[in-house]
User: Fold these one by one.
Assistant:
Number 1:
Amino acid sequence: MDTAYSPEDLAFRDEVRDFFQEAYTPELRQRMRSSHKEGAEEWQRKLNDKGWVAPNWPVEFGGTGWTATQKYIYETERSLAGIPNVIPFGLVMVANVIMAYGTDEQKEYFLPRILKSEDWWCQGYSEPGSGSDLASLKTKAERDGDDFIINGAKIWTTYAQYADWIFCLVRTDNSGKKQEGITFILIDMKTEGIKVNPIISIDNHHSLNEVEFSNVRVPAKNVVGEVGKGWTVAKALLAHERTGIAGVADVKRAVRVIKEVAAKEENGGQRLVDDPGFQQRLADIEVELMALEFTELRTLAAQAAGGFPGPESSLLKIKGTELQQATQELLMEIAAYYQGVLPTDLEPDALGHEFTTEARMSYFYGRAATIYGGSNEVQKNIIAKYVLGLE
Amino acid sequence: MNFDFTEEQQMVRDSIARFVQDDYDWDTRKSIVASEKGLSPDNWKLFAELGWLSIPFAEEHGGFGGNIVDLSVVMEELGKGLVVEPYFPTVVLFGGLIARAGNDAQRAEWLPRVIGGDVLGGFAYVERQSRFALHDCLTTATSSGDGFVLNGEKVVVFNGEQADHLVVLARTSGEQSDRTGLSLFIVEASAAGIDKMNYPMMDGQRVANVTFKDVALPADALLGEEGQALALVEALVDEAIIALASEAVGIMGVLNTKTLEYAKTREQFGVAIGSYQALQHRMVDTMMAYEQCKSLLFKALCEYKQDPAMAAETIHALKVLIDRNAKHVFGEAIQIHGGMGMTDELDIGHYAKRLMMINTTFGDANFHRNRFVETAFAA
C-alpha cells in the first residue's frame, strides 16, 4: 500500500507541467474556443512534435512507452492545466482498431496520417433506430465487384462536418443473428452520395450530425478485420473506451474553478463560498471525488500489473459522469440569473458576468455524458451481467 | 377539505389549454422566439381579449378580481405551452407592483392599460453584484426639484428588450445593503439617459441590461412611500414565487407525460424501453417528484389565500422542492429520451431550460433553504 511517486515520476511530472505551461499558450487556448477544428489540430501537431500525441499506442507505431503511472501523471496534469483531451475518433478509436485488426497497407497509410492529424475522423455507430441496441443497425453494404455500395444513415456523429473519414458499422448480411453480418469499414467523406445534416444540441452548439449514405461506393479493401466480423471489432473498441479514466482530474479542476468563482459572488454581504449550504454540497462532491481518485488508481495498478481491470473499472464511467454533472450544476447555480444568457456579442464587462457561456454549455452538453459511449443504464447492465453474474 | 378548482377556474384553464393546443404548437412557438420581437403582438391582444391579463387585478380597474389560485391556474397552463409572451414580467411583476404600491391615480392610470394589453412592462431589480439579495442596491434616485434623478444599472431585466415601461428599484437613502431607503419608480423605457443592452436567454426570453444616466423623473413616478419599498417588493416576490412554482408544476407534468409516451413507443432490443423495470422505477420516481411539488404548491395556495403572511415558510420550502424535483424530472426526461433529448429541435430541452430559469429567479434552492432554516428553526 503505497502511492508515493518515485523521484523519476516527480521529474516526469515537472517535465509535463513545464511543457504544458510553455506550449499551451493563451493564444492557443483562445483559438480552441473560437475555432475548434483549427485549434485542436494545432495542439495535436504540437503534441506530435513532442512525441506525446498518442501515449497509449505501442512504441513501434509512435507511442511513448510510458509506464501506467506516467500516463496517469500526464492525464492529471493535462486536466489540471485545463487542456482538453485530444479528439479521440482518430487517435484513440480508429487507430486502436487498425492496429489490432488492420492490414499492413491500412496501418502504413492511416497510422502516420493520424499521428500528424492530417485526417479528421468521425464515428458512424448509432442510427436513428439503433441507440443502446447497437447491433440492430440497418445501414446496408452490398458487394459490387471490388466495392461495397452503402445505403442508410448514421446519427449523433460528432464533428462529421469537419471529417475527412468516417469509420462505420454496416450490415453486410441479414440472414443470421443480428450481431453477425456486421462489418467495420472506413469511408472517405468526400465520396459521392454522402450528406451531412447538422443537429443543434441543447447547448445551442453544432457538434452533432446525421450522416446519410445513398449509393456510396467504398472499396472492399477499406474493410477492417473480416467481412461479417465487425461486431467483434466494435466490442474491442468499446472495451478500450471503458478502460479510460474517470476524469477525476477534470472534476478536481472544476471544483477549483467553483471555489474561485463562488468567492466572488455574494448574497447580501455573505460570500457564496462561505455559505454553509453551498459548502456542504461542494463537500459532498469532494468526498466522492477522493474515493473515485483511488478507484481510478486501483484500476491503474491492476493494468500496470498486466492484468485486466477489475470490477472497479466498471464504475469509473458512471461515478465520473455523475460527479461531472454535479460540478456543472453548481457552476450554473453560481451564475444565478446569468446562467441563461445565450451567446451574444456583448463583452463580459458589458454583460456583467464572465463564465456564463461556459457554465451553460458545459451543463447542457454534460447531460450527454450519461448517454454516450453506452448510456449509464447500459453500463449498469454490463456490471450486473459480467461483474455480478446476474442474468 | 377541498382541493377542487371552481367552475370559473376550470374555464380559464380550458381556455388557455385550448389556445396552447390549437394556436401555440411547437413550430409556432419556435418561430415566435426567432422573430424580431421575440413575442407575438397578436397573441398579446388575444390574451387581453380573453381576459387573461386581467386575472389578478381588482374589478374597479376592469380586472377579473382573481385570487392566488386563479393566477396559479393561468401560470400552470402557460407553462405547459412554454408561452414566451411576457405574462410574468408584465402582469405579475409590473402590474402586481402597481396594484400593491400605487396610489389611486397610478392604479387608475396603469392597470387598465395592463389589462387592455396596451403596455409591456418589466421589473428592474437585479444588479451585477446583488445575486438574490433584493436590498443589495447601488442604483440611486436622488431628489431634484419636484422629482428625482435616477443613476445606476439593472441587469437581466425580464422582458427588458420589449418593455415600454419599467418599475425600477432604486435607493433614495442609505448604504448599499440597507433594508430601508429603497423606493420604486415607474420609468418610461425610452426616457432620455436610458441605455438598453438587449440579449436573448436560453428559455426564449429577451432581457436587457439597463443603465440610467441622470434620468429625470417627475414626482408622480414614485410608486409607494419613499424609502419603504422593500416590504412591498418582498410581498410581491412571495406571490411571484407561487406563480413561478405553478408554471414549473405545469412544465414538470408535461415532461413526465412526454417521457412516458416516448418510453412506451421507443423500441430497443425488440421491446419498448418502458418495459424495462429500471426505467419504470425511474418514471415512478419522477411521477412522485411531480405530485410532491403539486401538494406543496396546494399548501402554499391555501395558506396564501387565507393570509399571505401564513405562507412565508411554505414558500421557501416550495422553492427548495421545485428546484430539486424540477432538475430530477428534466434530468430523467433528457436521459430517457437519449440522443433525441439532447437536440435543440425537440421541446424537452427547452422545458428544461425554462425550469432552470424558474429555479434561479428570486433565489435558488440553496438561498431559500437558508431562509427556510431562519424561519422554521427560529420558532
Note: Chain B has eleven helices and ten strands.
Number 2:
Amino acid sequence: MTKFFKWGFLILLALFFVVPLLAMARFAFQSVPVALLTGETWLKGWSIDPIITASTDPAMWSAAKTSVLLAVFTSVLTLVLLMPLAIVTEIKAPRMRPWLTALTLLPWVVPPIALVVGVSVTFRTGAPWFLASVFSLVPFYALWAMPFTYRALDAGLQAINARTLYEAARSTGASFPTIILRVILPNMKASIVAAAALTTALVLGEFAFASLLLKETLPTFMVNFQQSQARAGLALALIILIFTALAIGIVVRTLRRRGLNVQTTGL
Amino acid sequence: MRLWQLFSRANTDTRIGIYVAIPFFLFMALFLIYPTVAIVGSALSPGDSGFSFSGLGNALSGSYRQGFLNSTALAATTALIGGILGLTLAAIMRSLDRPRWLHGTLDSWSAVASQLGGVPLAFAFIAAIGTQGLLTKLFGQLGININDFGISPTGFWGLVVVYLYFQIPLMFLVSLPALNGLRKTWREAAALMGASPTRYWLQIGIPILTPAALGGMLLLFVNSFAAYATAYVLDPGGALVPLQIRFLLQGNVISGEEDLGYAIVTWVITLLLASLFLLTYLQRRTLRWTRS
Amino acid sequence: MRQMKLIAPLLVSAALVLSACSSTESTTDATSASADASSSATSTEAAAGAPVCGTTVEEIAASAVAEGKVNLIALPDTWANYKGILDSFKATYGIEAPVANPNASSADELTAVKTLADQPDMPDALDIGPSFIQQAQDEGLITSYKTTNWDEIPDNLKGANGEWIGSYYGIMAIASNKTLVENAPRTWADLKKPEYKGMVTLNGDPREAGASFAAVVAASLANGGSYDDIMPGIQYFADLKSSGNLQVIDVTEAALLSGDVPIALDWTYNFPGLQAQLAEVGFEMEVVTPADGLYGAYYAQMPVAAGPHPCAAQLWMEHITGNEGALGYLEGGAIPARLATMIEAGVVTEEQLAKLPSAEDIAKITFPTAEQTEAMKTQLTENWGSMVADA
C-alpha cells in the first residue's frame, strides 16, 4: 500500500464522517435555509441561541439525568453478573470459556426491536408494575451490554495472565477470596472502565426499546424535542455526540498513559 | 433434598462455580429466554388455535416477504461494503505508527459512532444530502444534481450510505484484534525468505484474516438487520422488518394478522441465531491462529 | 463475612424469581377490567363507572385541582394553537398539563394507553382522528363524558352517548413554500404535474396518522371516490409515488423550516402557529383549500378509561369545549365545535373569524358516518401497504 493510497483513503473517510456533522451543525446554528443560502447570506443568521434553548429546558436535564443513571446502573449490573463468572471460569474452568463467549453473544440474537415484542406479551401484560419505572430498562440494557462487557473482561483476564497470578498467589497460601479481591480485581481496572465506557455509549444511543415502551430517556427526549424545536434539537444531539466521544477519548487516553491498553471489542 | 446433598458433597470449586453461574443464568432466563420463548410460542399458535406453522408462513408472504428481502439486502450490502472499508481502515491504522493522536481519536470516535444508529444521524444526512442539503446545494451550484446519481438519504442506496456511518466504525473496532494477531515476526520471516509483500498478503495475511473478516461482516449483518431508529426517521412507512414489527405492535393491521408480529420476530431471531452460530464457528477458527 | 458475599447473589436471584412468580398471579386487574369495559360496548354503563366530579365546571375544577395534574399526549404546540390552549388551561386552573410525545400519531396514542396502563404517566385524555374512535372503543381504552355544554355541541361532532366530542375541525389543505415552489399547486390534480417531483409530503402514514388519512379521503373525493370508496385516493397516491412526486419523509417542523417539505398536505390550522418561525428563516407558506377535493374533519377528544386523573380529564374536556378553549382553537385557525352558539352569544369578533377558512368552504364540509369511517379505514389498511408504502 502506498502512502498516497493510505492517506487518500483516510481523508475520504474523514470527509464521510465529518461532512454530515458539519451540515447538521450549520442547520442548528444558522437560521438561513439552504435554499436561501447565497454569497451574501452565508454569514447571516448564525447564533448559539439553539444551545441556550436546549440547555435551559428542564425536561432535557431530567432526561439526561435518567440516561446517566441508566448507564451507571446498567454498567454495575452487567459487571456484577459477569465479573465473578468470568474470573471463576478463567481460573477454575478455562475449558468453559468458549461456551461463555458464545452464551454472552446470545442477547444480540434478540435485538431491542424484537425483544420489545416479547416484553409486551410477558411483562407488559403479566407484570405491568415491573415496567412502571424507567429503570425497568436496566436489565434489558444489561443484556445488550453483555457481549462486549464479557469480551472486555476476558481480554483483561488474558492480559494479566490471571491463571498464573492465581496459582502464584495460591502457593503463598492466600485464600480464594483474598486472591480475587486483592490480586485479580485491582488488575482489572482497565477492563472495567472500558466495559463501562462502551455500556454508556450503548445506553446513550438506544432508541428503539425506550421509544416503544414510552420511556423518556435522552435519546427519546431528543426526538420529541427535535420535532418541536428543530434547531435546538439538532444542536443538542451534536453536543451530546461530541461530549460522549470526548469522554470516551479521555478514558482511553488515561488508560494508555498508565500503560493499560486493553482491547475492548473484537469477536 | 437429593440436589442439596449433591451440592454439599461437591468440592469447593464446583460450589463456587454454581454460586457465580446461578445469578447469570437466572438473569438470562428471566429477561432474555422467557420473553423470547413467549414470542416463539405465540408465533406457533396463531389466534390461540393450537399449534400451527401457518403464522410463520404468512410472515414470509406479501409485503412482509418484501420486508425481509429489503432488510436482508440492506444488511448484506452494508455488511459487505462496511466490512471491506472498516477492515481497510484497520489495516491502514495498524501500518501507521504516526500520528499517535489519530489512533486515540479514531478509537474513541469509533466506539461512539458504532452505537450511533440513531435519529441524529438521519438528520445529519438529511442536512447534508437531502433535497435541501448543503452538499446537494453546493453541487447544484456546479450544475450537478447529486440526487440524480442516487445520492439522497432515502431509498435503498441512501440507507446504505447512512448505515455505513455506524457499520464502518464497528468493523474497525472488531477487526483490530485480529489484525494485531498477525505477528510482525511472520512478516519479517516471509521477507527474509524472499516473499514479496503481495505474496505475504495473498498466502499468509488474507487466509489468516478471512475467518475474522467474515465473522466481523456477520456481526455487521446482525447489527444492520436490527437497526431501527435511522430507518424510522428516513422512511417511517417503509418495507423494512424493524419498521414492520413496530407497525404490527401498534395494531394497525388487517384483521387476522394480529399475530404476525410474533412470527416475524421469530424469523428474525432464527436468522440472527444462524448468523451468530456461523460467527462463533469462524471465531474459533481465528483463535487457532491468534492465541498465544 | 466472605461467605456472605458469595451467597448474596443467590439471595438476589431468588428474590427475582419469587417476584416473577407473584407477578403472574396478580395479573388480573388491568387487562381483564378493560376487556369488561369493551364488552359492555356502549357507554351508559361505562359512564356510570366514571367518577362524578361535579355538575358545574367549578365543582369539576375543584375535584381536578385535588388531583393536581392531567396527562395529555400528542398535542404539538403549533397544532391548532394547542400551546395557547394549554397555557390558558394551566393559568385558569393551576393544574399541571404535561404533554407526552407531542408528535405522536393517533395510533401511537392508543398504544400509549395500553403500554402505560396502570402507570402514573398513563394518558388521561386523548385527541384522535375519527378513524381511531371505533378501535379505541373496541379495545376498551376510552370512557364517555358529557360536558356541561353538551347541548350546544352539534350532533355530528359528538358521540350520541358522550363517547367522544369533536371539539374542533379543519379543512385538508395544500400548503406550498413559495420560495421553493414557483407555481403553488391549487388542486389535487395540480399535484400530479412533473414540476412537483419529490416535493409532495404527507403528514405521516395514513394507517396511523389522522392527518394523512384525511389527505387520502380528500384525494378520493377529487378523483371520483366517495366516503364509501376511497380506492381512487389510494390509487392517486400510488401514482404520485411512482411518478416520484411523493416523498417519504414526514411533515415535521424541522422539515418545514429546512425546506425539505416544499409542499405539505396538512390541516389548515397547522400553519398559523408556524408563521413566525417560517418568517424568521425567510420562508412563506401559501395555504390553499383544494376546490376539487374539499374535505374537512374533526379530531375527537375523550377521557381515557381508568386514567390516573379522571376529574382533571373531565376538566380538560370542559376547557377545550368551553369558550376559552374554543377561542384558542380559533386563534390557531381551527373551527371550534360550538362556533354557531358562540357567534350568537357575541363572544367571537370579526377579527377572530378572519383566521378561519372561508365561510363557503366551511359550509361545504360534511362528515362521514362512523360506519363509513370504519369501512374507509379497512379499505386503507388492506391496500395502502401493497399499493403505496411497500410498492
Note: Residues 1-48 of chain C have pLDDT under 50 and may be disordered.
